[in-house]
């Protein structure tokens, strides 16, 4: 490594957004250096745990059915965010996903049709063949073939800003402090979800009980450094992509296999055996990302999903086996719940469930009456043994506090001025578009779209 070399584009991060930026900048003729905090075996950030990308399309493709147009996509996003989104940037992202798949395929990414358990996404989401790890490997192979230089085990300590201009990056590469210079910089280093002390500033002591689904390297060091130097922030530090995952998952890096998709067909109770939210509010891809926050608000940040044998094959199971019993009381004992209280809750739910035509593929209207909270769909009595239970914990994927950008991915200062040579893509700027809530596959959409924009604009700026 020539430490005196001045690259055209320096990309901070090693996941989907960073690699899209690096490949795009290199294809535009720029010299590019990628700094990945993780060692090579764990490269790729959260992207290696992903499965799909939500893509607008006007006609069926090899892996997407029917059509998914801008207005429907926008309406889906509007509903999950409650309007907390920048419409200009959101619609820009939505439109640009129409061109994302050809770019990805040119980089060696391969797709597959939706599998059993994900068929309700067949119209909206393109699934990666081999998952996120295969996607990341394809991007790295493409970047290396194009001549992108990559440093692993390299943490960026600071991007030294001087009146909105990045003069150099202070780094620690394989344990040694260094300085790297580049004409332009793309920050794609993720959120701060792996920084429990920072999470506790917004969530209090409850954050100690959070599980981090993705990379343990997302400490938010670059984000904190930029905010401390006067870069404009966007988003709420307490908002994040938080899903209910299996409570037996590891503290870090459990990935998507620890996610639990049984909630719509279950009742979910807290440690006191009490239900606390409508499990059947909407189809799972539009509601799964609210359940991490819901569980986080319960005592000890724990909950339990209870199903009967009829629902066992209706969802993709966790990597951990269900806890089972032939009686509700026996299941309660195995879960550490009060058997009398759980049996009472189940009896009350069963009595309130209105008989109807159960259909797991759509909003079926099978609901409860006279029960608080109500269950508005898939309210089928839990009555056929054996009964199964799963412990739930909040699983944090990424945080929404980030840096503010314009439509060209240029980072803005607190006074509204654009920085001179700093761009951003991915989770570090996603709060501009995701104020709260989540839409399945949309994080990858943001990273891909703004990674390509940032790479294009950084290369253009470097040439000029």
TrEMBL record:
Protein name, entry field: FAD-dependent tricarballylate dehydrogenase TcuA
Gene3D superfamilies: FAD/NAD(P)-binding domain (3.50.50.60), Succinate dehydrogenase/fumarate reductase flavoprotein, catalytic domain (3.90.700.10)
Keyword field: FAD, Flavoprotein, Oxidoreductase
Residue ranges of domain FAD-dependent oxidoreductase 2 FAD-binding in the record: 8-433
The organism of origin for this protein: Teichococcus coralli
Native organism taxonomy: Bacteria, Pseudomonadati, Pseudomonadota, Alphaproteobacteria, Acetobacterales
Entries under NCBIfam families matching the protein: CobZ_N-term, PRK08274.1
Pfam family, one: FAD_binding_2
Transmembrane region(s): none
Gene this chain is encoded by: tcuA
Necessary cofactors: FAD
One of the record's GO molecular function terms: oxidoreductase activity
